[in-house]
Every structure is written in C-alpha cells, then in structure tokens.
UniProtKB/TrEMBL annotation:
GO terms for biological process: coenzyme A metabolic process. This is 3-hydroxy-3-methylglutaryl coenzyme A reductase. Belongs to the HMG-CoA reductase family. The lineage of its organism: Bacteria, Pseudomonadati, Bacteroidota, Flavobacteriia, Flavobacteriales. It catalyses: (R)-mevalonate + 2 NAD(+) + CoA = (3S)-3-hydroxy-3-methylglutaryl-CoA + 2 NADH + 2 H(+). The keyword tRNA processing does not apply. Pfam families: HMG-CoA_red.
C-alpha cells in the first residue's frame, strides 16, 4: 500500500514527481518523461504556472481555438475558446457566420449586482436584533472603508446590507445579506474581505450592546462568503430575422425549421432531462470563453444552473418565439465576470485573449460570453432538428479516432477522403483503417 507522505508539499517539484512515479507507476521512467515533457522551456513562464497552485508538477494543455465573425452590437469579434470537445469551435464559428449575415447578435447587460452573506446564530427575538442592526448599519460601511475606498473610486462598492430572518428554516439562523457592485473585477476577494469585516463588526458591536442579555451578546458567526448565485447580474443576448431567412440550406424549409426549432426550445423549457443537455450545450460555449479569459468557470456553471431552476423546476436558459413573421432566439444568463484582477493580468494566454477581444470591460465580456452561449446553442439545436448531431460531431471527432490508432499522415488523408460523404462511426473508421493497412 502507498505510504502517507506527510511532508509532500515541502518537497521540490522533481522530488514530488519522483515520489509519485515510484509509488503509482509500473514504468516510473516513462511516467516521469510523460509529465516533464509538458514543462515550458521558458523558466519564467513555467515558474508562473508553478505558482498558480500548490503541488504543481506539470502543465495540463487544452487547445485554445478561436471563433471569428461574431458581430455583437455592430462590432466584429474573434472569440477565444479553451475547450477539448472536438466539434464545439467549428459549430459555434458556423453559427457566428450565419448570424453575421442576418444582422449579428444584440446583447444587453440587465444588471450587475453581486451578493455576499454573513451567516450567524442569535438566540433572541428578531425585533431586538433588527433594531440593533439598524443602529449599527453605518458602522459596517465605516469599518470597511479601507477596502472600499479604491472600489468606490472606480464607481463600485457596497450597495446595501440587509438583515434576514431565516429562523423558520433553521433555529436562531439569521443573515447579513449584502449586495455589491464590483465594476470590472469579478470581486470575490473584495466581497469576502468586506464580509469578514462585517462579521467582526457584528460580533464586537453585539458584545457592547447594552440592550442585549448576556446570551444575546454572544452572536455566533458561522461563516462569511460571497454567493455564486447572482440572479441580478444578468445579461441578455438575442438574434432575430424574418422566418423565411432562417434556412441557408436548399434542402431545409425555413418555416418548417423555425417551427421545429421553437418546439425544441419549448421541450427544453418544460422537460428537465432535455433542459440539462440543452444547457450543457450552452455551457460548451460559455465555459470555453470564460476559461480563455481567465475567469472561474465553476462559479459560472453553478450560478447558471441555479438560475435555470429559479422557478422551482430546472428549465432551459434560452427561449425562442415566432411573432409577426419574425423568428427571435434569446438567452438570459447570470455571469459574474471580471476583466481585471485574478488571472487576467497574469496568464500570458489570458492577456492575449483579452487583447484579441479589444480589452473589454466586465460588461462587454458578459455580452461576448452570453452571445457565445447563444450561438453554441443555436448550432446544437439546428443540428439536432435537421441533420442530427452525429454528422458534425463525428466529422470533428474523426481526427481523435485516427490519432488514437496512430494513423500516419497518408492514412489520415485516405480516411478523410473516404468518409467525406459517408456516415462516420468509431467502428467504421477503425474497420476502414484496418482495410487500408492490410
Ligand atoms: C454536446 O456536447 C452538446 C449537445 O448535446 C447539446 C444539445 O443537445 O443541445 C449537442
């Protein structure tokens, strides 16, 4: 059995690798070679990556692709996407080109409010706590002035702090529910720093409050943390065109396609099993841009799926309608993104991605990301309701199958030629490859 290694984090990078390969691999030399071959030859870049996290042993590559021809509010963008799934970039790029010929995408930020909470226990009644809270409310702002000064200069800061009674759901449980504007930063550190100060202020002030009994003075702070659920930090992206312009394929009738498309969206609105896959398709695009621009895709994922359930049943994030001969397709999605702070100024490829996007502010990035999600969703639902998803997917996946089977350049070309107009499946490709080889 592998020994517990208590001093692991103190080992050098090379010692860590040596320990790992000796413990877990049948061929330690080969394993070491695999992991070290991804080290960057530029020591400074490698050091930067080593220091992003604890116990770095190597770099884990994802392809960085780009999707050109996105017209958003009249401006042309090439969008960076870090993603491993074969057909994602090809599909979204096709949708971008399609809509660029129909007026492009429109995007509007609906609001930008972030949220954080101090969760605490208080063993007294709400009225007493509330009058204490109202009497010290300005103190929360005063005690956080050191942290909020800079944010206020940029036009942001703490918007409000409310006391919330949750004792119906958990005995003695209350919250300070605070709202923030963090401008161009995602704001996690700013919010959490403010919240931890609110908690200290609350505790200290309660101890000094003459109106509280000894028991009531002992407010117990459970935790202070931002919420990744941001239903008031939402952006809308939309496309529209006359129904008769919805098909660019002579084999697909525009009206029939528009109606089928709207029905597919209605199904995702009412059927959770479909909604999850439908929204996963949206997140294919969203996560890829979020990752390429140095933002936290787990936060975005968690917030998006919570928003998709906000009416008590998991549902589609996108919607579609036909009204007066116009097809409209849109998405409302919460996106707490930043274009300063975090990795944005640190990771060279993130800097590259943001510069390629014209150094957007947070609101502009929200629009770009929402549009990418909508375009990705359009591409998926169009394939699903017309040709089926496998045609495009397998075409892109073909190269993965060929690489898995170590096909040579010549073999790849032969296989690509053969499958140009033939249904692709893993087994058909392998059979054909074997046929060539024999
Ligand atoms: C695959 O990654 C995403 C899709 O399943 C999305 C969808 O079904 O809408 C194609």
């Amino acid at each position: 059995m592998t020994q517990i290694n208590k001093g692991f984090s103190k080992l050098s990078k090379e010692e860590k690798i040596d320990w790992i390969v000796s413990q877990y691999f049948t061929n330690p030399q080969e394993a070491k070679q695999t992991v070290t071959q991804y080290w960057n030859s530029d020591e400074n870049i490698q050091k930067l990556h080593d220091e992003f996290i604890e116990n770095t042993i190597s770099n884990f590559y994802l392809p960085l692709g780009v999707a050109p021809n996105f017209i958003i509010n009249g401006k042309n963008y090439t969008i960076p996407m870090a993603v491993e799934e074969s057909s994602v970039v090809a599909a979204v790029a096709k949708a971008a080109k399609f809509w660029s010929e129909r007026g492009g995408f429109k995007a509007t930020v609906l609001n930008t409010e972030k949220i954080g909470q101090v969760h605490f226990l208080f063993s007294g009644n709400f009225e007493k706590l509330n009058s204490f809270f109202q009497s010290i409310k300005t103190q929360f702002f005063a005690d956080t002035e050191n942290f909020t000064k800079n944010m206020q200069k940029r036009g942001g800061g703490i918007l409000d702090i409310a006391l919330v009674d949750k004792t119906n759901e958990l005995p003695n449980y209350y919250q300070l529910h605070a709202t923030f504007n963090t401008k161009d930063s995602m704001g996690a550190n700013f919010i959490n720093t403010c919240l931890e100060q609110f908690a200290k202020t609350l505790e200290n002030q309660a101890q000094q409050n003459e109106a509280f009994s000894e028991e009531e003075k002992k407010i117990q702070i459970i935790m202070s943390i931002l919420s990744n659920y941001v239903p008031n930090c939402v952006v809308r992206a939309e496309v529209f065109c006359p129904v008769e312009q919805l098909s660019d394929d002579a084999n697909i009738d525009s009206k029939e396609f528009a109606e089928k498309f709207v029905t597919a969206i209605k199904i995702a609105e009412i059927e959770p099993y479909r909604a999850v896959t439908h929204n996963k398709g949206i997140m294919n695009g969203i996560d890829a841009v979020v990752l390429a621009t140095g933002n936290d895709f787990r936060a975005i994922e968690a917030g998006a799926h919570a928003y998709a359930s906000r009416n008590g049943k998991y549902s589609s994030l996108s919607h579609a309608k036909i009204e007066n001969g116009i097809f409209t397709f849109w998405i409302d999605i919460p996106l707490a993104l930043g274009t300063i702070g975090g990795l944005t100024n640190l990771h060279p490829l993130v800097k590259f991605s943001l510069e390629m996007l014209g150094k957007p502010n947070a609101e502009e990035l929200m629009k770009i990301v929402a549009v990418t999600g909508l375009a990705q969703n359009f591409a998926a639902v169009r394939s699903l309701t017309t040709t089926g998803i496998q045609k495009g997917h397998m075409k892109m996946h073909l190269m993965n199958i060929l690489n898995q089977h170590h096909a040579t350049k010549q073999e790849k070309q032969q296989v690509l030629d053969y499958f140009t107009n033939t249904t692709i499946s893993h087994s058909l490709v392998v059979d054909y490859l074997e046929k060539i080889r024999s």
